[in-house]
Amino acid sequence: TQLLEQSPQFLSIQEGENLTVYCNSSSVFSSLQWYRQEPGEGPVLLVTVVTGGEVKKLKRLTFQFGDARKDSSLHITAAQPGDTGLYLCAGGSNNNDMRFGAGTRLTVKP
Amino acid sequence: NAGVTQTPKFQVLKTGQSMTLQCAQDMNHNSMYWYRQDPGMGLRLIYYSASEGTTDKGEVPNGYNVSRLNKREFSLRLESAAPSQTSVYFCASRDYFGQSYEQYFGPGTRLTVT
Fold first, then answer.
1. What are the tens digits of pLDDT across the range A39-68?
2. A68 backbone φψ class: left, alpha, beta (φ>0; ψ -120 to 50)
3. What is the pLDDT of residue A22?
4. By a Cβ cutoff of 8 Å, what residues of chain B touch chain A?
């Protein structure tokens, strides 16, 4: 059983569409991070959110941390083929206990 | 500035063989981590080192040992490889910035045990 559940597991969309992926847990986290991983490479940190209700924007990507700090969402506006990859969320309870979700595999078709 | 480097990139072992995965970081981070990534399982922590001279077990430590050689280097050893250890292994380093920490991953080692 995953501590962090990510949905959907797979998502295939056309260039220009909007999408939202979710990261849910029954546990409270002190921080939550989103990563993107491309084939054959390690995950790359996109953002860290630490405050309940916090919203951060990174160009076309919008990240939100739930008010209760148990869940998060990632919204992509006008998706591009370069957004293709595996999106991972990770929840931190203290400096060394970080748990990862299984990821959402996004494919953006031109 | 190379970030986190790992060697080798690929490895095939036979059951019972041993090997050491090497990891180095040049960001002067205190903490280093070893994860394994399996399909549908996400990243699972094997061992970590919060600072030079200390190591601790993570979620899935059985069958592995680690050495924090110095601040830069953290190695992972498989003493007697098993097919269940077929996976992609990632090393990461982490340090605290402001309210949270930032974690950087290496490119991974793809290990197959036959």
1. 889 999 999 998 999 999 999 999 999 999
2. alpha
3. 97
4. 4, 31, 35, 40-45, 48, 50, 56, 59, 90, 92, 96, 99-108
